[in-house]
Amino acid sequence: MFESLTDRLGSVFDGLRGKGALGPKDVDEALREVRRALLEADVALPVAKSFIDKVRERAVGQEVLRSVTPGQQVVKIVHDAMVETLGTEPAPISLAAAAPVVIMMVGLQGSGKTTSTAKIAKRLTATEKKKVLMASLDVRRPAAQEQLKVLGEQTEIATLPIIEGQQPVDITKRAVQAAKLGGFDVIMLDTAGRLHVDEALMAEMADVRAVSEPHEILLVADSLTGQDAVNVAEQFHERMGLTGIVLTRTDGDGRGGAALSMRAVTGVPIKLLGTGEKLDELEDFAPDRVAGRILGMGDVVSLVEKAAETIDAEKANKMAAKMKKGQFDLDDLAEQLKQMGRMGGMAGVLGMLPGMGKMKKQMNAADLDDSVIKRQSAIISSMTKAERRNPKILNASRKKRVAVGSGTTVQEINRLLKMHRQMADMMKKMAKGGMKGLGGLFGGGMPEMPADLPADMPTDPKEIQRLLGDQAGGMPGLPTGSIAGGVPGLPGLGGAPGGLPGLPTGRGGKKGKKK
Fold this sequence. Notes:
The chain is an alpha/beta fold. 51% of the residues lie in helices and 8% in strands. The chain has helices at residues 3-17, 24-40, 45-59, 62-65, 70-86, 113-127, 144-155, 168-182, 199-212, 228-240, 257-266, 287-294, 300-310, 313-324, 330-342, 345-350, 357-365, 371-381, 385-389, 396-406, 410-433, 461-468, and strands at 101-107, 132-136, 158-159, 186-190, 216-222, 244-248, 270-274, 282-284.
């Protein structure tokens, strides 16, 4: 989501950064393009107009005209205005009420209510240590109640037993009673969806609300719906008094305007984003982080949080101990590839790094995708333990056997081994000279790290991004618009000019031209 908006805004800001000074005419031209980008991204017209007026008022002031870097100042103003539009602070689900806390899920048919109900229940169980009961009130859609029951079995979360023929209000009363008797902390009510706002179903939901007295009423909205999602949000809010919005399918190719518009039009905070079909693919909506992603400023904090959630601490400590000794075998490389897959693949990781928008475009142009990582993992899995620990014993006949076993070619195996050698050399340099030893690998562009990191490392996204370096100039050691500098720590993205070194250049990508 937001990719088209990010691309359009990126081209606008690139033009501004190239100018030494900005006049009112330059700002007006840029804002005209920003307005067009917002409308193309399905942002509602009143929201786009209000947004541009807010930015223009700040951008034409002396603050920008006298700034040393006026282009970057405009980017900051747009970022701040976008954060205000999306909501200044994250709004987590509130459980500040007497148990059992009732959370009511509403929305159109097919928006993902039932799956979102299970995702939220799983999150509350895992992170908040709450005892959750899920109840399906959808008596109209075939097998809707059975679907929630199956999801409950998968997540090991209790679901209200199904009684055929019972109506939603009676199911609600039974759920509240069962939660009180069973000592549950939270009740999740999954209501029936509708093709559009239906008067009879609205009246039914109002009756359910009166019986259950929900602490949270969450609208589940499909981010692919576009501008119609805003109308739906308005009508549900008028009738039900929404307390939050859950956006689903944000991993799709939606243009993202619904997210900007719904928050601005209804004033209801977006609380959660569904980032995939799996039950753990749910993340908090943090306005400043999302604004940073839209403007190509990255989201380092989310990347760190995702890494913390997916990394096996014991394996990480073992690998760190090996790296200190300069050791790095193919088992270690396989673990790195798996870790990248768990964090959303190459695109997911790069999308959260500041100044990496151009690299993502180059990867797309080279037709690289996460199947490359899967093929590399398959090659390593087809090797024996001895071969993984000591790749030097891989002679021609062994490579042919591995190629047949992994469904790849000897050329792909050679490229993987070359990538491994590059990474192993980097680990040896780190072991010998610390971060300074990497200077030769990255053309002197690698910043020197402090000997002792402070215990109170900042967690604020803006502060972390400031420490990482100027966003306009890309990552430290990575020339803007070039991938020659490499990205330390990311497998398959070593530092050699011409293409994406380390990644297979056959089926997954194209070979860089030699200079």
